[in-house]
Description:
Layout: E1 11-13, E2 16-17, H1 58-74, E3 78-87, E4 90-101, E5 107-110, H2 112-115, E6 120-124, E7 130-132, E8 134-139, E9 144-148, E10 172-177, E11 185-199, E12 205-212, E13 224-227, E14 232-240, E15 252-256, H3 257-270, E16 276-277, E17 280-284, H4 287-293, E18 301-306, H5 311-314, E19 322-326, E20 329-333, E21 337-341, E22 344-345, H6 349-359, E23 365-372, E24 375-382, E25 384-385
Antiparallel strand pairs: 1-14, 2-4, 3-4, 3-6, 4-5, 5-9, 6-7, 8-9, 10-11, 10-13, 11-12, 12-15, 13-14, 14-15, 16-25, 17-18, 18-21, 19-20, 21-22, 21-23, 23-24
Amino acid sequence: MNILKKAHSSRKILVFLLLPTLALACGISFPLATLATPTSQPVPAVAPTVQVPITLPAPVIDEQSTLIDLYQRVNPSVVNITIYVSQSGQVVALSQGSGFVYDDQGHVVTNAHVVQDAEQIDVTFSDGSIQSGKVLGLDLNSDLAVLKVDQMPSGVQPLPLGDMDTLEVGESVVAIGNPFGLEGTLTRGIISALGRTIPALTPFSIPQAIQTDAAINPGNSGGPLLNLLGEVIGVNAQIETSGLNTSNSGVGFAIPVNILKRVVPDLVENGQTEWSWLGIRGGSLDPTQVEAMKLPVDRGAFISEITPGGPAEKAGLQGATGTTTVNGRATLTGGDVITAIDDQPVRSFDDLLIYIALKTRPGQDIKLSIIRDGKTQEVSLQLAPRPESLDTSTTP
């Protein structure tokens, strides 16, 4: 399914490029205070200082204990990934990212953008041991990849996966990874929003991403976003920046665990995965379109363009046929409005994207409820696999 969303110019993926740096130790000196002239006046006795122990409130103690315990349990399963490429006849380190142990068979999950250009890979565990990693499979549509190492250190356990349906905005979360190459860094924040759509490494988009204010920076890519139970709820992948730098500004995005559960088993088993494709471009229905087309509904997915040769074209779906001005605002009109898929309500374009991505497979037959010329009708079609590339020159 093709989506309007393009990569925002200020959104950055989090791979950390290895560049030569010079660390300077800076000492701060303070001038000596001028000594007072002794006098013959008696010095009053000073009462001995009594040190009163600081007592922390119970919630603070509980939170500290939770984070300390979580780090001790989880950090051994978080790895640092170093990417090597050939330059001028030598193999050199190009970049770093993060990852985490997925199972007890030596499989490590990370981002596809971390490893897609790698010629050699080192996987460094928290105990300092290093294993060579092999890319078992990667998926550019979800920005996920699976590495294979031959042997894991003793005692390293796979991280449990959380449940997307239980997540709430405001819930405390933790990121562990290697920002700027600083291995084993823990940061804490909250879930700032759920259901974000972020750009993939293809013309398509990744739905249901998790937005967090936990500090994630270049080098955190591929590392886990965890709830306070130590369960993986997402894979850290992108940050929003001002465009002037690549550091964290409090807006980060993680690929959600339900996408991980959908993709990683396929990568482990087959080295690849396939996504369903409908072959449309569009967006959520807006009030100007409702008024311009005199629609009987005010929510749905509006089709602006049909991709030639795709399932939608073969099924006779219709894209926008013109532009109308309503209250001074130009809006596309004439396209079909999708209101349900397999009898599940579609209230936005994201609803359609999520259903196609997570509830279907290529070759599956689906039924769409659409509104065309003010009338409701049903359209059946068979989904196809996503193409490897699309002509995006006409993307609205």
